[in-house]
Amino acid sequence: VQLQASGGGLVQAGGSLRLSCAASGRTFSSSSMGWFRRVPGKEREFVAGVTGSGGLRKYAESVKGRFTISRDNVKNTVSLQMNSLKPEDTAVYYCAANRYGSAWSEGDMNYWGKGTQVTVSS
Predict the structure, then answer these.
(1) CA distance 8 to 110
(2) Is the CB of residue 120 less than 8 Å from the CB of residue 13?
């Protein structure tokens, strides 16, 4: 599975951005997908995850109610709609795939895309 994230950019606090991740490979629909983020000097952290069927979604407490993860198994894409953005959401965002289960710790993810920068100004 190859992953390519896009959609990052600069936005004011309170604004919205939508990240997309395009996946190649025939195992996409059976892979759990996740979004993670990293702030310089800090460890990468889980943001949101969705199972292969889309039936289960999980969010970090810090983004609940503001971010929504979704996937399209026909187009092989996973998206992260980010609303009510805050300066503390500034980070490099990564999409990742778990080929074998529905867990979203960093060590569970088998494939990673290159990150996309999200910057939220105050």
Answers:
(1) 23
(2) yes
Q: Which portions of the chain are predicted below pLDDT 50?
A: none
The identity of residue 87, as a single letter, is P
Rounded-to-integer distance, Cα 13 and Cα 28, Å? 33
- Report which of 31, 24, 36, 39 is spatially closest to residue 97, judged by C-alpha positions: 31
Taking the C-alpha atoms of 3, 89, 16 and 75 in order, what is their torsion angle to the nearest 10 degrees?
Answer: 10
User: Is residue 86 within 8 Å of 13, Cβ to Cβ?
Assistant: yes
Sign of torsion over alpha carbons 99, 102, 107, 111: positive
Percent of the chain exceeding pLDDT 70 equals 100
Q: How many CB atoms lie within 10 A of CB 8?
A: 18
Can you give the pLDDT at residue 38?
Answer: 97
